[in-house]
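hiii so um. not sure if this is the right channel but i have a protein structure encoded as tokens and i wanna go backwards to a sequence. like what aa goes where. can anyone help
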């Protein structure tokens, strides 16, 4: 492999790792508080992309305004999902398996309602002219939005850290993640904090969906399934419930996926399997993930 090709693949790996990390943060925040795997997170990703798509196509909004509306409505959809599918079970102290089944049901519901309303045909997502342009770095051509994704991921990571460790809401989130019953006894509004968490996680999913659609501008209702699974794997590999771990897991997965195919192009047909192989290897040696802590479930 020439040095030029190496750096070309390296920039692609940075982009993909940043995208995985961005979406995995939303996964890990919900799990950190509720100990719930929100399997509908991948569908929320594509919901954000479609809201942005129709905002531009039907309502003729400027692309930046359509993106902001998509992020806000994506957060609203996430909160509504919690209100309809998860909160009634929490209020009845249902076992965790019931919440898990509800999450799987919500995922299939969003997939199929999308197929019924939108249809299965791929739709071309709008890519703003600036982001579609390429910048030449020596002999390496890099699309402009590949510079934006890592920057957005780092800014969001800083914002999440500020929220969690420097605000009263973040203090309540940490208390809830540490000891759910005690947090309730201390007067914390459990449902409000969980709603904030779902809003933030779903907004991150919408941002990730928009970024994913700009990179692979052909969206359809099932387009979020595989990225959602891979970002869940990234969160588990890094240590689900740990925000820095989700970022590390996302970058690790992105780099192994891109660079693995770069060095072994004959394995390109197995690209999607790399994520599952990494998951099996990591969990074989460190079941809690790279930065995860052993959690004792209370029953």
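sure thing!! here u go:
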């Amino acid at each position: 492999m020439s040095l030029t090709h190496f750096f070309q693949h390296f920039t692609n790996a940075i982009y993909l790792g940043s995208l995985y990390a961005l979406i995995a943060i939303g996964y890990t925040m919900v799990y950190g508080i509720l100990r719930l795997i929100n399997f509908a997170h991948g569908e929320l990703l594509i919901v954000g992309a479609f809201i942005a798509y129709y905002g531009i196509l039907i309502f003729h909004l400027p692309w930046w305004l359509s993106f902001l509306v998509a992020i806000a409505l994506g957060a609203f959809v996430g909160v509504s999902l919690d209100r309809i599918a998860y909160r009634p079970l929490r209020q009845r102290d249902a076992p965790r398996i019931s919440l898990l089944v509800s999450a799987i049901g919500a995922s299939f519901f969003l997939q199929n309602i999308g197929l019924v309303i939108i249809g299965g045909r791929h739709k071309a997502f709008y890519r703003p002219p600036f982001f579609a342009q390429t910048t030449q770095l020596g002999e390496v051509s890099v699309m402009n939005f590949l510079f934006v994704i890592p920057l957005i991921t780092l800014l969001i990571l800083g914002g999440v850290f500020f929220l969690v460790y420097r605000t009263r809401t973040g203090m309540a989130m940490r208390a809830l993640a540490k000891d759910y019953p005690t947090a309730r006894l201390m007067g914390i509004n459990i449902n409000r904090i969980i709603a904030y968490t779902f809003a933030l996680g779903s907004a991150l999913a919408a941002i990730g969906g928009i970024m994913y659609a700009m990179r692979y501008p052909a969206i359809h209702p099932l387009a979020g399934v595989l990225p959602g699974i891979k970002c869940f794997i990234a969160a588990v590999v890094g240590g689900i419930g740990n925000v820095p771990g989700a970022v590390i897991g996302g970058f690790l997965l992105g780099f192994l996926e891109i660079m693995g195919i770069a060095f072994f192009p004959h394995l390109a047909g197995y690209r999607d399997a790399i994520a599952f192989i990494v998951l099996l290897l990591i969990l074989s040696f460190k079941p809690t993930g790279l930065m995860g802590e052993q959690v004792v479930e209370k029953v």
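oh and The chain has a mean pLDDT of 89.
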